[in-house]
Design brief:
The protein is mainly α. The chain has nine helices and two strands.
């Protein structure tokens, strides 16, 4: 069986190497007469691990998405509470609501449908007003809304911190070309597997079957992934494909493309 390395996506190929390399090291490359080829693959894998997904929408973590959802839910809750208290018509709250409701309508209501940048700007301005306006702060405390505004502020600061870390990570990302780095690793892996295929013939005194069997358990999984994906796309750029093959002395066992 064979698998097309070119069809294994970058993050999948990186995972494949992280599983395959320990297997080769486990069986002692020196004893298996594979040290030079294994060392080459290990060196190529170092560069593969330095690759990161480019900064952009796809890098948004699940944590960040969840925090934004919680922020929106909290904003809706505060708006709902302020409007509900206004509808009650409690006379003793009238003066306080005259301060809080317009404040909420001005800063929080627009955030419900605003983009991320506009929301951040509005919240920043809102908390500046709260910190410098004693009457607003007192009104929020009187209506027991301080806890909600404090929680929203803490959540917003967490979101800003995560965004800052993402920007810094993007700036620090090494200037590596994914195609080049992956191609070097592909060549190293393909050459290593080819060497392993011939090794039982060149070194009949060494038992390679346990190593080959353990490798194939890993390779079969990626074969299934590639095969499932190829069903969705019938275009097969065979000229760009590299095959990974592991053979035993009496039969070939590798990944299906």
């Amino acid at each position: 069986r064979t698998v097309s390395c070119a069809k294994v996506r970058k993050h999948e190929f990186r995972d494949l190497l992280s599983e395959v390399i320990p297997v080769f090291l486990k069986y002692d490359p020196v004893v298996m007469n594979l040290k030079v080829m294994v060392d080459r693959l290990v060196a190529a894998n170092i560069h593969m691990n330095e690759l990161r997904v480019s900064y952009g929408k796809q890098t948004e973590t699940k944590e960040l998405v969840n925090m934004r959802k919680r922020r929106l839910k909290l904003i809706r809750s505060i708006v709902s509470q302020a409007r509900s208290m206004k509808r009650t018509g409690v006379v003793s709250l009238d003066a306080t609501l005259l301060v809080v409701v317009p404040f909420v309508e001005r800063y929080l209501v627009p955030c419900i449908n605003a983009n991320l940048s506009d929301t951040a700007d509005r919240l920043k301005e809102m908390y500046t007003v709260i910190d410098t306006n004693a009457s607003i702060k007192a009104a929020l405390r009187s209506l027991n809304l301080t806890l909600f505004f404090d929680e929203l502020n803490a959540l917003q600061q967490s979101i800003l911190s995560v965004n800052t870390l993402r920007r810094e990570a993007a700036i620090e990302q090494p200037d590596l070309k994914t195609k080049d780095v992956k191609a070097i690793a592909q060549d190293a892996l393909t050459d290593l597997l080819t060497t392993l295929e011939l090794a039982p013939i060149e070194h009949p005194e060494t038992d390679y079957n346990p190593l080959i069997a353990e490798l194939n358990k890993i390779l079969v999984y990626y074969s299934v992934v590639v095969k499932a994906r190829s069903k969705k796309s019938k275009q097969d750029a065979t000229s760009n494909n590299l095959s990974m093959t592991v053979a035993t002395p009496d039969k070939t066992t590798a990944i299906a493309s």
